[in-house]
């Protein structure tokens, strides 16, 4: 999804408001992230956040019960603790669930729906359980590849798997904490 900033000359309309981005501040007013406008509105309606700045031109989002002006900046009512991660990638151990989530269940070889994870360099050849050696894989590709490297069976990776970024991990952490606090 591409986000549009409020400063953009494009007017907010019923068709594009969902693609605008909203700045999220922690309860301590520290900037955390930018999120899609529809998520921001959900946080406001659910009481997890308050709008502290609306768009310059008033634009109302209507749900069945309430009307909320499209915000530009929101502040979480509850402090969310985000640990400092020193650099770049996630150094944690790769898990099956983690790899599927990182690759959004898309097969690394055919982009089809993936339920399994492939060791790019096979385990039988010493391939490690690391983020860059694991990729989401559909059953058909996994069966075709078996105990081979992609080159040996003429398969090509559609992207180079890497550890999830700090940003992706941070976003998930924010949503998990908010979900826990407002269940
Ligand atoms: Zn596949």
Automatic annotation (TrEMBL):
Positions of the HNH nuclease domain: 94-143
A Pfam cross-reference name: HNH_5
Keyword terms: Endonuclease, Hydrolase, Nuclease
InterPro entries: HNH_5 (IPR029471), HNH_nuc (IPR003615), NA-targeting_endonuclease (IPR052892)
GO MF annotation, one: endonuclease activity
UniProt xrefs under PANTHER family: OS07G0170200 PROTEIN, SLL1193 PROTEIN
Protein name (record): HNH endonuclease
Organism encoding this protein: Nocardia callitridis
């Amino acid at each position: 999804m591409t986000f549009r900033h409020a400063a953009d000359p494009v007017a907010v309309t019923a068709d594009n408001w969902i693609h605008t981005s909203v700045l999220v501040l922690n309860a301590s007013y520290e900037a955390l992230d930018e999120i899609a406008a529809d998520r921001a509105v959900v946080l406001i309606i659910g009481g997890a956040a308050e709008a502290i700045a609306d768009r310059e031109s008033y634009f109302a989002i209507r749900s069945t019960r309430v009307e909320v002006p499209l915000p530009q900046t929101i502040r979480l009512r509850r402090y969310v603790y985000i640990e400092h991660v020193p650099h770049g990638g996630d150094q944690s151990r790769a898990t099956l669930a983690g790899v599927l989530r990182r690759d959004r269940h898309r097969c690394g070889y055919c982009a089809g729906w993936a339920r399994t994870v492939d060791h790019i360099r096979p385990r039988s050849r010493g391939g490690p359980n690391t983020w860059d050696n694991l990729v989401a894989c559909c059953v058909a590709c996994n069966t075709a590849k078996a105990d081979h490297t992609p080159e040996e069976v003429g398969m090509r990776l559609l992207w180079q798997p890497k550890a999830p970024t700090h940003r992706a991990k941070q976003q998930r952490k924010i949503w998990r904490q908010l979900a826990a606090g407002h269940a």
